[in-house]
Each structure stands twice: as structure tokens, then as C-alpha cells.
Amino acid sequence: MAYSFGIKSVKKMTGVHPALKKVLYRAIEITDVDFSIIEGVRTLERQKQLVASGASKTLNSRHLSGHAVDIAPYVEGEIRWDWPLYHRLAKVMKTASKEIGVPVEWGGDWIRFKDGPHWQLPWGKYP
To answer: Is there a smaller number of Cβ atoms within 10 Å at the N or the C end of the chain?
Structure first.
């Protein structure tokens, strides 16, 4: 089954780095799990709210510069938060990354703070 982004996901990619968008558009073409963009570029105020609530650990987020997005599986008409679905999306995102030739980092691979929805361009290659 082929998926494509809805209007809300496309709007949430406004200001996101073009290289990361390429990976996302390739991933939606090849995924077997539909997904949505739940957050792209953030304001510093929004980031401060997320840190205060414990949903983020840094005020130096890649979301502030458009170098990160949060995605979530969309199953039977709703966003889902179950980790097995994020692992399936990780496989698709990593495959798309390799195909496009744009490196990405997944928050689910982090050791200290697992963040399944989070994808970002690496600091070293995309300062």
C-alpha cells in the first residue's frame, strides 16, 4: 500500500531542512506503516515547555533550526505510541536515508533519553 503525506503533515514540515524532507518523502513512499509529521520547527518557547514537562532534555534542540522532526505511526485513523511501530518506522527511515544519501539520527537509538518519534540531521554534517 502506498502512502502520502496529508495537508497537516506537509504544513508541519514548513521550515524543515530540505535534506530531511527528502528522507521523509522517500520513507512515506516505501513504508508499510503510515505515519504523520507531528512536529517540525519549534519556537524556543515551545521547547522550554517541553523541557519543563520532561518531554525534552535540552533547550538546544535541532527542532529550533529545522534540522529535526517528530513522526508518529498513524493506524486506523489515529496516532499510535507503541514502541514496536516506532521500530518499524526506524527501519524505513534508515532505509530511506541510505537510498537518498542523507544521514539521519533516531532518538530511539539514544542511550540516556529514548525518543521514538524524533529524527534529526547529525550536527557534524549539518551544523
So the answer is: N
Q: Are 35 and 118 in contact (CB under 8 A)?
A: no
Lookup result for grid cell 496516532: 79
Domain 7-120 indexed as CATH 1.10.860.10: no
pTM assigned to the model: 0.93
Burial letters 13-37, b for 16+ CB under 10 A, else e = beebbebbbbbbebbbeebebbbbb
Kindly state the average pLDDT of the residues 23-37: 97
Cβ atoms of 55 and 42 within 8 Å: the answer is no
Domain positions in the chain are 7-120
Q: Cell triple for residue 90?
A: 526506524
C-alpha cell recorded at residue 17 = 531542512
